[in-house]
């Protein structure tokens, strides 16, 4: 019996350790993918989209604060893959862990729902989880570079802005998609699958044309985002926005297409303006559409219940009450029951 109790006591610890290890692996893989599209701004290597922040915030929302060691371990592995760990690594790992934790706590305090079926959920993720919490990692990361002397004080703000926007884009583009994929899958009719396939093919053709063209026609992506948000809500709009942002980032790092003949700072500004606009359009519009559809379903359900009540009243029957009441258990028309 004592052995059984010991096993039950250690089972939660084992589950937490395994989940933290899985989060660390996902964080490291996302970090390696993010480093493929890095830019150099004022001598500092930054990434226009830093997917690990989105992975970290989504993991905390799905699994709870107990998996924070996995975030710290994943951050350490990413840093160790770039340079030899040193005393400053502790500060970087701490800031990369504290920022998603603050985002998680702020979102929980604001009553954030993982299905993001309300506009307030989208706004909370943008302003609390993205813009607000990521101030910590950007300030600590760039401030550390200034304290080490590897970055001049006059270069602080350009590097800080690039770092902050990259972390924020990771939250706005990656976290919603992971939350949607982790939720219950909806059912699509055959007609919806055909429309989804047509939208996917259109995206695969139109987005490269908009990005690769030197005429700067990136605005052609936004009708696709609106179409995806109106018809497929978060799942469609965030996939479309992520694909467009990733492809645009790779072209920007190569200095081709819409980013031809631009300086590093101009590339960063133009790229972040596009990524931010795409993420906000996809996220907020999809949240509005989802909330409106949920409201419409609630109104339709209330109308059906009211119609049933009116039918019973017209027939002279007692209106059906909620389960467990006297009416629902077949009370006589006079309303009295035999003792």
UniProtKB/TrEMBL annotation:
InterPro entries xrefs: MASE1
TM annotation in the entry: 12-30, 36-60, 67-84, 90-110, 122-141, 161-184, 196-226, 232-250
Organism domain of life: Bacteria
Localization in the cell: Cell membrane
Signal peptide, first to last residue: none
Keyword vocabulary terms for this entry: Cell membrane, Membrane, Transmembrane, Transmembrane helix
Pfam families attached to this UniProt entry: MASE1
Identification of the protein by name: MASE1 domain-containing protein
Lineage: Bacteria, Bacillati, Actinomycetota, Actinomycetes, Kitasatosporales
């Amino acid at each position: 019996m004592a052995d059984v109790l010991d096993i039950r006591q250690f089972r939660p610890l084992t589950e937490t350790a395994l989940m933290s290890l899985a989060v660390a692996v996902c964080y490291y893989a996302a970090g390696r993918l993010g480093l493929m599209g890095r830019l150099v701004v004022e001598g500092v290597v930054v990434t226009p989209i830093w997917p690990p922040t989105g992975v970290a915030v989504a993991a905390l929302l799905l699994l709870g604060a107990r998996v924070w060691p996995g975030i710290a371990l994943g951050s350490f592995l990413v840093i160790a893959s770039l340079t030899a760990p040193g005393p400053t690594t502790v500060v970087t790992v701490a800031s990369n862990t504290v920022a998603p934790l603050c985002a998680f706590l702020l979102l929980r305090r604001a009553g954030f729902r993982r299905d993001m079926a309300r506009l307030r959920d989208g706004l909370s993720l943008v302003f609390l989880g993205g813009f607000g919490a990521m101030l910590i990692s950007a300030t600590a990361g760039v401030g550390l570079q200034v304290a080490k002397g590897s970055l001049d004080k006059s270069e602080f703000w350009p590097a800080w802005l690039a770092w902050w926007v990259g972390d924020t884009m990771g939250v706005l583009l990656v976290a919603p998609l992971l939350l949607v994929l982790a939720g219950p899958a909806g059912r699509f009719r055959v007609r919806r699958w055909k429309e989804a396939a047509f939208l996917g093919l259109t995206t695969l053709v139109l987005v490269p044309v908009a990005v690769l063209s030197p005429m700067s026609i990136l605005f052609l992506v936004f009708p696709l985002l609106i179409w995806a948000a109106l018809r497929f809500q978060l799942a469609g709009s965030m996939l479309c926005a992520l694909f467009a942002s990733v492809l645009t980032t790779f072209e920007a790092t190569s200095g081709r297409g819409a980013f031809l003949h631009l300086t590093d700072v101009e590339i960063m500004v133009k790229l972040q303006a596009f990524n931010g606009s795409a993420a906000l359009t996809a996220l907020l519009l999809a949240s509005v559409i989802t909330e409106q559809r949920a409201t419409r379903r609630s109104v339709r359900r209330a109308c059906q219940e009211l119609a049933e009540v009116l039918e019973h009243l017209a027939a002279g029957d007692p209106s059906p009450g909620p389960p467990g009441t006297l009416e629902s258990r077949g009370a006589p028309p006079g309303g009295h029951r035999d003792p």
